[in-house]
Amino acid sequence: MKKLLILILLIISIPAFSAVEKTGVVSNVQIWGGIAKAAVCSSNNTCVTYWVSLSDTKGNSVLSMWLTAKVSQSPVYIQGYAPDNDSHPYSGASKFYGMTVK
After folding, report:
1. pTM of whole model > 0.85?
2. Which of 7, 39, 42, 69 is close enough to 26 for a disulfide, judged by CB 3.0 to 4.6 Å?
């Protein structure tokens, strides 16, 4: 019974850990209240939007990286968590986790 309960909890929590990855260029950066959003688009114009909170140093650093990548048009590889909030200002954007500027 205990194993069954653990299995059920694991299956339920899998979508919460879904990764959203994208390689492309930063095409749009926005600030809405306490969050910043960036759209990363690949060569075939498919875009994924990510958001980060600006309430700490990490968020401000990420915003600087996004702006630098946008201005230089450097390719980026970015990861985030599956969107869980469709309301404004998140609008289905994935929560930022990590990024590599190539």
Report:
1. no
2. 69
Residue 67 burial by CB count (10 A; 0-12/13-18/19+): exposed, middle or buried?
middle
* 96-100: long-range pairs with CB below 8 Å, 24+: 96/50, 96/51, 96/52, 96/62, 97/19, 99/62, 99/65, 100/76
Query: In order of start, what are the domains of the chain with their CATH numbers?
Result: 18-101 (2.40.50.110)
The three-point CA angle 81-88-54 to 5° equals 60
- The token pair at 40 is 């990363």
> Are 90 and 32 contacting, i.e. CB atoms less than 8 angstroms apart?
no
Reported as a pLDDT band with limits 50, 70 and 90, residue 43 is confident
